[in-house]
Each structure stands twice: as C-alpha cells, then as structure tokens.
Design brief:
Blueprint (H helix, E strand, L loop, with lengths): L9 H8 L3 H8 L7 H14 L5 H8 L4 E6 L5 H16 L3 E6 L4 H11 L5 E4 L5 H7 L5 E4 L8 E7 L1 H13 L5 E6 L7 H12 L7 E4 L3 H14 L5 E4 L2 H13 L9 E6 L12 E4 L2 H16 L6 E5 L1 E3 L5
Parallel strand pairs: 1-2, 1-3, 3-4, 4-5, 5-11, 6-7, 6-8, 8-9, 9-10
Antiparallel strand pairs: 10-12
Helix pairs in contact: 1-2, 1-3, 2-3, 2-4, 5-12, 8-9, 10-11
Length: 327
C-alpha cells in the first residue's frame, strides 16, 4: 500500500510547540537552559507528531558528524563490497561517517538491524527485502534510500537498476555467435523468479527461443559450479549460460573447466554485475555490467538531498553488455 507520510522534522516540532529549533534540540537533549514548562510543551509536541530525534537533529547542539547506516546483504559478495567502497568514498568527501551493516541476506537480520540502528544514524541507505510499510515503521522520521528497487513512500529515495537492455544485448550476442540452447543460473532461495530471469525470458522470446533451461544457484563460486553441473547433466544441449551475477558465473567457469569444456568454444558464459574480479579469471568474464561506483556515489548524493529537505527521487541506472573473453 502506498504511503505518503511526510517526514516529521525538528521544524514541525518547533512550530507546534511555538519555540525555536534550538529550544527543541535543548529540550530533547535534556539541557538545563530552558524552563520545565517549555521543555514539557516540546516533549508533548514531539510525542504527538511522532517525532523521533536522530543524531542529525541532536547535532544542532552538539555539532555531531552526520552518520549514515549502509545496509548490505552480503559483504563477502564483491559486488556489494564495491558499492560500499564507493559510498564510503563519497561520504568522506562530505565529512560524513558511514556504518556498514551486513544482514547475511536474511530478512530477520535486516529487521533486527533496522530496530537497532534507529537512534544511531541520521539516515539509512541500502538493499532491503522488507516491505516499504515495514521499512517506514522502523525508520520513522529518517531519510531512506533504497538501492535496487523503486520507492513509493514520499520521504524515501531510490536507485533502481534497469538491466533489460543489457540482458537483451547479451542474448543478441550469443545468438549472433550461433547459440540456440541458452540456459540461465538464477538466484536460489527466492519464492519467485528474479527480475533478471524476467529480462532473460523476454530476450529469449524476442528470438523465438525457449527460456526453460534454468537452474537455481546459491550466490557463491561453489554455488555457481554446482548449479552448472546440475543444469548440464539435465540439459546436455545447452551451449551457453547467462547467470544471475558474476560470482555465480565464475563458479560456472570452474565447473566447465572440470568437465573438460573449453570456454567459449564449447560453452559460452555471461555474468551480470561487471565486477573487477571478472578481469582476473581465465578466460576474462563477459558480463552485463553496472557501474558500482556510480551506485554507491549516487546513494550518498540521494540521501544528502533528503537530509537537506529536498524531494525524493527514483534514479534509474542502466546496465550494458561488456564483452571480454568468455562469450
């Protein structure tokens, strides 16, 4: 359900209580410079409005550094590490601190993280599986930027990924090389097919090809190796695979080598993400590439706009085929 709840600010509390911003901050921080009646009026206004003071608001008195909570599903995945590194660099340029939280790709861990950091940071940026309604509940009053999905709540911003054209370029490239039986290693553990599988199916359909040779893969090198082995055992006619991400693709390269398959002569492999790691494997990985530096930097730019009272946006970043040696 779409929510248009406006973020309650310290200015709103000041207006309702009939005092200045500085007085609100002093009251919330239990400073002794104001009388008891004024302090109570401020506290009542804050409670009635549902205002939760963040470190940013308290910094009006203490001049604290702005701190951003960056929520990442898996720091062992180099894609998220690259995004986090770019966000850290952009934040340093603003003199901000970033605290990174790894949720282990677990909804329960994600929920617990948000419950724990609410009073520790000024804004939250990251990858979330929770619904926007639940995110809204756990981050009330704070700017939030979602990475990898669109936003609907007014006080949220987002950076969504459009890989449809890049995946279409990948399948076009494989078809031009003569491949007709093309498989996919999709992200395991999801109740529904990933959006990348939807892009794959649409690109295959555009060429009149079946998109039914799909196997689930755990997001790891070993997961990619196991998934490719299972797919080729079941579908020996497959001559090319597109994978959910580069880590899975690197595992597929390992599995192909163990089976005695030459890449790309016997089996072409295309990943998704554009990791630098893809340049050091042999053969170098062809991939549908995203600019991880742009994702991280844009996330910090978006949250800065929200902290400054600006309007939320839905920034869309596009992926494109990067041809190397594996396809």
């Amino acid at each position: 359900m779409t929510s248009e709840t406006k973020r309650v600010t310290i200015n709103d509390v000041a207006r309702v209580a009939g005092v200045s911003r500085q007085t609100v901050s002093r009251a919330l921080n239990d400073k002794g410079e104001i009388d008891g009646a004024t302090k109570q009026r401020v506290l009542d206004a804050a409670r009635d409005l549902g205002y939760r003071p963040s470190r940013f608001a308290r910094g009006l008195v203490r001049q604290d550094t702005t701190t951003i909570g960056l929520v990442i599903p898996d720091l062992l995945n180099p894609f998220f590490t690259e995004v986090a590194a770019a966000a850290l660099e952009a934040a340093r340029g603003r003199g901000w601190h970033v605290v990174v939280y790894d949720t282990a790709d677990s909804v329960d861990e994600e929920r617990g993280t948000l419950e724990a950091i609410g009073a520790q940071v000024d804004a939250v940026v990251g990858y979330f599986s929770l619904t926007e309604a639940e995110l809204d509940k756990h981050t009330a009053g704070m700017p939030v930027v979602l990475i990898g999905r669109e936003h609907r709540i007014a006080r949220f911003g987002s950076i969504s990924i459009d890989g449809a054209l890049g995946v279409r370029q990948a399948i076009d490239h494989l078809v031009a090389a003569g491949h007709r039986r093309i498989g996919m290693l999709d992200h395991a553990g999801r109740a529904e097919p990933s959006v990348r599988r939807e892009w794959f199916a649409a690109a295959m359909e555009a060429h009149g090809l079946a998109a039914d040779a799909v196997a689930p893969a755990v997001q790891s090198v070993d997961g990619g190796a196991v998934a490719l082995t299972g797919l080729l055992d079941r579908e020996p006619g497959v001559t090319a695979v597109f994978t959910f991400n580069d880590i899975i693709a690197i595992g597929a390269l390992r599995s192909a080598r163990k089976r005695g398959l030459a890449v790309p002569a016997d089996l072409a492999v295309i990943g998704f993400d554009g990791l630098q790691l893809g340049t050091v494997v042999d053969p170098a990985l062809t991939t549908v590439a995203l600019d991880t530096r742009e994702i991280g930097a844009s996330a910090i730019e978006q949250v800065g706009r929200l902290i400054d009272g600006g309007t939320a946006e839905d920034l869309v970043l596009h992926a494109a085929l990067l041809v190397r040696e594996s396809a």
